[in-house]
Design brief:
This protein has 391 residues and is mostly helical. It contains 17 helices and no strands. Helix 1 packs antiparallel against helix 2, helix 1 packs across helix 7 and helix 12 runs parallel beside helix 15. The two termini are 18 Å apart.
Length: 391
Amino acid sequence: MNKNVFLLSCCQGLMTTGNILLVTISALVGQMLSPSTSLTTLPIAMQMLGLLLTTVPASLVMAKTGRRLGFSLGNVIGTLGAVIGFFSLSQSHFYLFCVATFLIGVGIGFATLYRFAAIEASDKPARAISMIMASGVIAAILGPNLAVWVNHHFPALNYANSFLALTCVYLIALCLLQMVAFNEVSAKQSSLAPRPIKEIISQPQFVIAALIGMISYSVMNLLMTATPLAMHRHGFDLAESALVIEWHVLGMFLPSFFTGKLVERYSAVNMTVVGCLFMLACALINLLGVTHWHFMTALFLLGVGWNFMFISATSLVSQTYEPYERAKTQAANEFFVFSMVVISSLFAGWLESEIGWQPLNVWSVPIVCIALGASLWFKNYSPPEPSASKI
C-alpha cells in the first residue's frame, strides 16, 4: 500500500466518523426535538440530501481545481456543520440542527470520492478501494463510542458536546489531507473529447453497477437508520444501540481488508451475489426476534453484505470510463446511488413507526432480490470483466 492510499484511508475514516456519530444519535435527537414523529429521521435525511446535492458539484469542482482543493473545501464545510450542530443542540433548535446535518452531509459528499482518488493513486484498483473502505473500522469504533464517551464524561443538552469532538476529528482529517500527492488528470488527457454521458451510463456494466450500488446502500441505510428507533421502542438504551451500530459498522468495513483480493479472485459479480445473500440473512434474523443478539447479529451481516456489494459495484463502475471522463461518470454514479439513500433516510423513521420493524424487513427482501437477479443476469450474459481498471 502506498503512502497516498494510506493517508486517504485515514481521511476517509475520520470523515465517516461524522456519519456514524449522526446515525447513533440523530434519530434520538429527532425523537426529543422534532415536532412530529414523521420528522424523527429528518436530520439524517438532510445529511443524505446534502450528500446527494454534492455528488455532481464535487466531481465538477475537482475537475476544475484538482482533488486537494476540492477535498479541503468539503472538509471545511463539514467542520462548519459540526460547529453549527453544537450550537443548535445547545439551544434545542431542531431545524437549525437539520441545517447542521445538511452541511455535514455536504462534507461527507466530497469524501465519498476518496475511493476514486485511491483508485487513481494505485495500480491495484480493487485493493485500493478495499483499503479506503477498511478505514471505516476507525469510524466503527470512534463514531458510536465518541457519542457515548462524550455524553458520559461531558454531558450536555441533547448530546451537543459530541459535535465539538466531531469538529476536532474533522480538523485532523484536514491536516492529513494536505500531505497527499494526488494523481491529477494531465493536460493532454484533459484535451481529449469525452463521450456523451448518456453513452457512458447506458453501458450494461454501468447500469448493473449503479443498480447494485443503489440497492445495497439504500437497503443498508434504511435498516441501519431504523434500528436505533426499533431498539428504543423495545426498551434498549443508547449504550446498547450504540454497540449494535458499532458492530454493524465493523461489518461494513472490517471485511475490506480482504474484499479486494476476493473481488480479484472471484470477480465483482460473484461477490455481489454473496453480498445479497448476507443481506437476506440479515432480514431473516430480524424476523426471528428482537433481542439484543438478534439486532447485533443481523446488523453485522447487513454491514458485510453492503461491503461486498458496494466495493464490487465501485470496481465495476471504475472500468466503464477513461481518465478524462471520470468527473461526470463518477458524478452520475454518486447521484444515482445517493438519491436512493436520501429517500431511504427520509422514510426510515416513518416506516418504522407506521408499519413496524419486522414488516420493514419483509419489504427489504424483494428489493435485495432485484439486485441478486440483476447480478446473475450480468454474470450470464455480459462479456468477461476486464482484469484491470481503465483508469
